[in-house]
Amino acid sequence: MTQVSIDSLIQGAISGDCIVSFPTDTVPALAARPDRSSLIFAAKRRNQDKPLILMAASAEALWPYVQGSPAELKLWEQVAASFWPGALTLVLPASEKVPAAMNPIDPNTIGLRVPDFPLARKILEQTGPLATTSANLSGRPPLESMAQIEAQFPQVLTLQASELATAPTASSLPSTVAKWNGTDWEILRQGAVKLEC
After folding, report:
1. Residues near 158 by Cβ (< 8 Å), separated by ≥ 6?
2. First-to-last CA distance in the chain?
3. Which residue from 29, 98, 125, 162 puts its CA 20 to 30 A from 8's CA?
């Protein structure tokens, strides 16, 4: 049985020994410590050309993982202030703090997000930023319930039903993914958020 309390799930994530799953404002996430990203790639049978997203409880927790000019950082902070917490993933130049395992093919960029979901942020406040992705086998539709996730990924720690009773309903739309190309935003995936480029 891998349904656990929120405290046990947090400890499992911090230990780095296991993958955890929790709801977000879009689809439920599979998450692991960034330096243990390989666990997620293996569990999902995911190609290494599909990078993971670094999710955190606040924008401030994510800025150490990116590098840019002072003008770029100011612009990125303005966009984050407008849309985070929310369903927007920003793909930005990665700093040396990002483990290469998160994006094996292109370790120079990293996707960042702060979910608009109190339970997810409560977990992330205690674990620190986690490598995340949707909960599904690669190429399959995202799983939308903890029961489905437990059936598909029996080794993943999920939350007990009692921990989820007060959680709001999430959207099944994925996040919008916007990549900084050096001068402007390139929309890689249109999702819940409309970002004017």
Report:
1. 2, 3, 4, 9, 20, 21, 22, 146, 149, 150
2. 46
3. 98
* Global confidence as pTM: 0.93
Q: How far apart are CA 115 and CA 144, in angstroms?
A: 16
pLDDT of residue 176: 93
What is the identity of the amino acid at 141? P
Determine what percent of the chain is predicted with pLDDT higher than 70: 95
> What pLDDT score was predicted for residue 197?
59
List alpha helices for the chain, DSSP H: 6-15, 38-44, 70-83, 118-127, 146-152, 161-164
What whole-number distance in Å separates Cα of residue 180 and Cα of residue 186?
Answer: 6
Q: For residue 138, what is the DSSP state?
A: T
Instruction: Say whether pLDDT at 1 is over 70.
Output: no
Ordered DSSP codes for 67-95: ---HHHHHHHHHHHHHH-SSSEEEEEEB-
Amino acid identity of 43? A
- Rama region for 75: left / alpha / beta (φ>0; ψ in -120 to 50; rest): alpha
Please give the pLDDT value at position 140. Answer: 92
Residue 139 token pair: 């190429």
SS3 185: strand
Mean pLDDT of 70-97: 96
